[in-house]
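Students often ask why we bother predicting the structure of a whole assembly rather than each chain alone. The short answer is interfaces. A chain on its own may look different once its partners are present, and contacts between molecules only exist in the joint model. In this exercise we take two input lines together and write out one structure for the complete complex. Read the inputs first and try to guess which parts will touch.
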Amino acid sequence: MPKRNLRKRIWQARELYLLSLLPFIWLIIFKYVPMAGLQIAFRDYSFKAGIWGSEWVGLENFKNFISDRQFTRLLINTLRVSIYSTTIGSLIPVILALTINIMKPGFFKKAVQMVLYVPHFISVVILVGMLMQLINPIIGLYGTIAQALTGTRPGDILSIPSAFPHIYIWSGIWQNAGWSSIIYVAALANSDQQLHEAAQIDGATRLQRVWHIDIPTILPTFIILMIMDVGSIMDVGFEKVFLLQNSANLSYSQVLSTYVYEKSFGSGLPDFSFSTAAGLFNSVINVILITIVNKISKKVSDTSLW
Amino acid sequence: MKQKANKVRWSSNDQIFYTVVTVFLTLIALIVLYPIIYVVSCSFSSPDSIMSGKVILWPVDFTLDGYNAVLGYKKVWIGFRNSMFYTVVGTLINMFMTIICAYPVSRKDMPGRNILMMMYSFTMIFGAGMIPNYLLVRDLKMLNTVWAILIPGAIGVYNMIIMRTYFMSSIPGELLEASKMDGCGDTKFLVSVVLPLSKPILAVVSMYYIVAHWNAYFKAFMYLSDENLYPLQIFLKEILVASKLEAAMLDDVLVTSSASTSGLQYIVKYALIVVACLPMMIIFPFVQKHFVKGVMIGAVKG
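Now the answer. The structure tokens for the assembled complex follow.
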């Protein structure tokens, strides 16, 4: 009986299947076919033979990647930028949300929130363009301030390798911290107001209420976002790093994704198999990390992605 | 009334705390706002006054030279035209695909919808990456065509999921029952009942797509090599980041301007930043409310 029932239910849903057909074809072609294309990480890809015809080489591309003399540096650069931005980048929105929540409702609060959201709508290219103008030693804000303080025009800080992570991360904070705080502001606004009232009657100060009510309220959201961040710890967005990169700061700014690009499009002799292996190495570590962190979080705090 | 009661109970400690918080947030807001004001002011100032550090808040030595050069530059217009095209057509394709993708998986009576959802969600954790995607677009003969911009990103899986969440939580089941009795098919139900009831989420998602299209850079950078197809962001990258400012761009302005070529180059960049941001900044006040709503719907899903 269940089987006949199922057949009937499928027949009744025929129009729904018809609707999902086009998206499903899209999903297969544009998401899963490229995954099949990942096999070139285990082949020696040649333009002539194509994805399915090139020769199998097993793990050779991965071995080459791990023994690449750039490998350690890439790993360190990637992790440096990513851990730095995950920690700072997830704490600052929390602080913003907690303080926004404390402010009394009104025009001023709305205005502050609006201002904090604006930079999110600026494109990466313009952000980098703005940044390069502002830190320009001759025409930018940085040069002007430095001259006022020291009397001389400073050098170009974008060519100082060790300055790269700070420029990358703090410009990202400027652009996205306000936006990322929305989710916490929403969680706080929906929290139980009775708790606050009860605490006030008991004489708790506002700071104590932040500590004992507000922070526990947003903790589950924070954990979920943290899990997702850890799951992309090896993904340092290609676009912004690539745009900020120059030959002088490469020793800090060459990360995995930009290296993949350089190996396949930046040189006269593209090595698609090597790049794909490097990219795959990256994604697999991400998936492993997100699974582990999700498991730990499920055990420790009952909060998990799946 | 309640507010008043609270006020009485505030200790002086709390009063200090509120003040500190307000001052702190005001400072943060000023820090966020200042670079934007500085860029706008510089775009209206003469190069000499910027270089000598006179521009602090407002434009000094007001000039429109930068804007004249930007608006007289053909590539900026090509870029604007193309970006408009990608934004409008791309968003229409996105919305069509996202709706017909999200609605069926929102229906609890469709067998197999969980498997389908898992297949979509999985792509959020694991993707094939740069090279396999490039090879696919190449093999589909889409390189250097508008399709490379419009089709591979036809569905944003995150957007699809929040739309599905909305359909599931906001469309009453009784409506479906009633229309089924009337012999109304699923497609007709979607078009004539579900969509009119879902205007808020349609607004949110289409705005996500519009902003993403306008600001997109990566796909065009990877897949296009014909200048006539470039969106604005690619030209911006050439001019702002790679500093490839063609001298011809400045010729017309130089005739009437007192500034030197190199000085003019600087303010042209400032002006270009302002011009390129303008469309987003004009719609920002209208759309930010929708965006905030979108974040909250997404958060419900977790």
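Check your guess against this: Residues 43 and 56 of chain A are 4 Å apart (CA to CA).
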